[in-house]
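--- STAGE predict ---
source: upstream dedup step, 1 unique chain passed
mode: sequence only
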Amino acid sequence: MMKKRMLGVLALMLVCIFALSGCKKNVGTPEDNAVKEDSQDGEDAEEEEDTYSFGFSAIDMENPYFITLEAATREAIEKEGYRMITKDPATDPDLQAAQIQEMIDEGIDAIFLCPVDWEAITPSLKALKDADVKIINVDAQVKEMEYVDAYIGSDNQN
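--- STAGE serialize ---
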């Protein structure tokens, strides 16, 4: 129940971020790409195990749209004290599948996913579900929507 509520809150936050991210003027500036320093303190490592971990995989992290979306999502997640792992599949569906498996192995609880290929992503969706990872499909839909827990996208017809 708590995970469903948290997923709902995060999905709502992402919708707001998604809507506002197009308004940002300084795309690609150094503050968008800030690197969080890792702590060598063992206490921080214990805290990380007790927090939610999110994955972020979009079509191409060289695209200003996805860079802005990732930065805004990261900001909202880290503000809540959670962590986010971002992978860049560089428009390669096989690389995206391998990176998703890496994130599953790293123990993510949920993933923000914009698939490189809407059909080829299906085995990764199944692996995510088998690992009990919540899937938040962003921007480009997947073919097998029954695997998706939440979808956030624009209405391109209107």
